[in-house]
């Protein structure tokens, strides 16, 4: 589902404008066609696109990350691209991309450290620097032109209205509408310049329509991933094919909105049944009084129920479900410097974010700095990457597929890149911290 489906203009009234969010969401927008033939390459991504699956687009065709960064630490096989996010930073004169890779050997490597990795890449070539400088100057000039336009409109309006009913030196001094007012002892002319406020002078509301419309603060995530405007495509570009791959789809980025929906969690229907079971267990054993999970024997006999118990007992999972249901099509959440949406509050990854201060490992390549949350992949991405919604999908494919709840990427606050990492093409790649909250097994 694309963002156009999520945020249809015909459904604006369905969104709660009072709820504000600093998060940017990514939605699947269109499939990537990787077997293009001929001179037209409009369906192929560039580094200025955000997409899931397919083959990565490197910052320079001749510059790639270290082989170890693309290899699973467990089975030593090459990994497949899960996400490529164009993530430029405001005020920086270089392009920047975040890559997330995952091992396709899920039967052997799922839930093992090193089976999913994140890479940050930047390019500081002169062509990119000049391009960004030009874009920044053009944006500043546009803002200045808009400000001058509003100022000129205001001045013109004042000039046109200030003398409407003022006496002119070349006309009789008597105002036919002036003189004595038999109903007013002050005999003041409400239309003269000396009598009260002039309802025709300038704007009775103090500001023009254009003036009252405040200039919007530039949105981040590099102005919503550069407004998702398709960039100029190279005359000819082919996708690399040396890595295993999932199905590829372009991702469209938009700001997070919240729908006006009932605040009843999806798992509420299970909660009613579980509460009945708990009451039954408590009646049978006084030793279980106050224990929401009931007897240990019933938990062993019904592991599915135990999993549901754990979900309902976890306020973070409930918050995750309640937040996602506003925009169920989201495959990506981006909030540089913000907080991730935790899939659960129990595992080691959750403990790192819930500790005070947050206990995310410092970057080894810049030990004096810290890391901050940047983005996370959402479960809907699994459906699109593996095309689970296809009619011919088999149950075995689902069970043997990816089983993570969310993938969280944190990057260096200073966005530092060691000089020795840059190659002759002024491109550098480095691994960043990647935390995976896995789906619980039943």
From TrEMBL:
Transmembrane segments: none annotated. Residues 207-219 have a biased composition (Basic and acidic residues). GO terms for biological process: maturation of SSU-rRNA. InterPro entries: PDCD2_C. GO terms for cellular component: cytoplasm. Residues 284-298 have a biased composition (Low complexity). Residues 314-438 form the Programmed cell death protein 2 C-terminal domain. Residues 167-241, 278-302 are annotated as: Disordered. It holds the Pfam family PDCD2_C. This is Programmed cell death protein 2 C-terminal domain-containing protein. It comes from [Candida] subhashii.
